[in-house]
Hints:
The complex is a heterodimer. Chain A is built from no helices and twelve strands. Chain A is globular and about 45 Å long. In chain A, the strands form three sheets. In chain A, strands 2, 5, 6, 10, 11 and 12 form a six-stranded mixed β-sheet that branches. A four-stranded antiparallel β-sheet of chain A has the order 3-9-8-7, with no helix packed on it. In chain A, strands 1-4 form a two-stranded antiparallel ribbon. In chain A, a hairpin with a 4-residue loop joins strand 8 (64-69) and strand 9. Helix content of chain A is 0%, strand content 52%. By secondary structure, chain A is mainly beta. Chain B is mainly β. In chain B, the strands form two sheets. In chain B, strands 2, 4, 5, 6, 9, 10 and 11 form a seven-stranded mixed β-sheet that branches. Chain B is 0% helix and 49% strand. The interface between A and B is medium-sized, with 30 and 27 residues.
Amino acid sequence: xxxxxxxxxxxxxxxxxxxxxxxxxxxxxxxxxxxxxxxxxxxxxxxxxxxxxxxxxxxxxxxxxxxxxxxxxxxxxxxxxxxxxxxxxxxxxxxxxxxxxxxxxxxxxxxxxxx
Amino acid sequence: xxxxxxxxxxxxxxxxxxxxxxxxxxxxxxxxxxxxxxxxxxxxxxxxxxxxxxxxxxxxxxxxxxxxxxxxxxxxxxxxxxxxxxxxxxxxxxxxxxxxxxxxxxxxxxxxxxxxx
Lengths: 115, 117
């Protein structure tokens, strides 16, 4: 079974600063994918970034990057140059490569960007 | 850009009533999912669907729930007799592949907020 832990229920960051949202995971599967989703107050789930367990480099997508440390089983999301529109809930999720297993989500971190 | 569409965006229903939540997955996707998010809590898997049958379901998905793909485009979640604790945001998602490769993202709809009173 997979488990995602997000230990920060809430985070504050100053506009234009960088922020790191923590995510640790637990799985017995040797191959897996890690995802981050953003959920603004309107409720929709927006895919942000993906990291494969065998990817050699950390994933980046614009202002989002994933600090993947496989030995520590962590997949932290880094948002650079925060904007007011980044204020939202952020969910870390994972899925193994093999088997018919859907996404498993963490409890989320609420990020508030302050002007 | 293709997207998953859910209707209605918000539904209020009386306890004991049946509700049907509707979803139009992305057209070339073959795998469909329903997830649920109770207010303030994490997103939980309900059921996955492929080739006109359920692939996998969670313990949440009991006999009160059913899914159907009545035509080539819609994917529905029915709750037969709603309970107060069914109040949640329900997300439909679709993907091209199931399971692997793991980088197959699930595209989520904007959600249906169900309120049972």
